[in-house]
Specification:
Largest sheet: none
Distance between the termini: 8 Å
Oligomer: single chain
Structural class: mainly alpha
Number of strands: 0
Amino acid sequence: MIDEKYRWVAESFRDLLAGVFGGLAAVYTTQPLDTTKVKMQTFPNEYHSVFATLSKTFKQEGIRGLYAGSIPAVLANVGESATAFLAYGRISSGDQYMTGSKTHQELSLLSQAACGAGSGACASFVLTPTELVKCRLQTQYITGKAAAGVPTKPFAMFMHIATKEGPMQLMKGWTPTLLRETWGYFYFFGGYEAAKKVLMTDPDEISLWKTAVSGGIGGSMCWGFAYPLDIVKSQVQVGTLSPLQAMRGIYSEFGIKGFFRGITPCLMRAFPGCGALFVAVDYTKLAFNQVVLDPY
């Protein structure tokens, strides 16, 4: 049994570790659809549908093209998930202290969703540079930058941006990323917790399919509400536009529909990807609790 004085440290490490495994599970189940989403967002005149984009990418670039940017995607998702779940747990603990709640499950659904929004804001700082590298790698075949001597490996791309464009450019797209993560994580955790309340009579129950469905619902709600901000973020990180210029350009060329281009592969990957994420997170927490926090 862990000493109560250090229990919060162990719980923080547990949440961090759970986020790492959750991020890994999410990436490797859905990476080709993420590549498809980014290409449809940034080059809508060339990539019109999910299956056409998948097919064209595979023919031109092979299986490696479908998994282009997977290493920065792993770093992005692992960093994002680890930070988000760590922050979610700590913000929840603070909320419990202020409201006199004994457990996270005693918090209202609105409070749980607000904790999620706070965790998303924290994750945006980790996510922005890794998302920038991922988007550049996923689209450089189209832009022709690969042939022009721009690096094709994640770390080399990271260093190229830092040295050629300046260290501050690694945070390019942070504003739309912050808005997307804060808004999206409100629904991500809110949707997950709401689905759990409906599907599980015992708040401490862990069920493989119920957890996967709850996570899928939370992920779908997150992307459904935050998707327009993701399009703006991708446009900013791949091009030279400001967020406002990107929004004006999308609207003037495509109208409101332009803010939802690529949403099909995004939602196709959101449900299984987030389902896998929450399964990995909850079972990692369960194992950690049984081995470290409450072994007897």
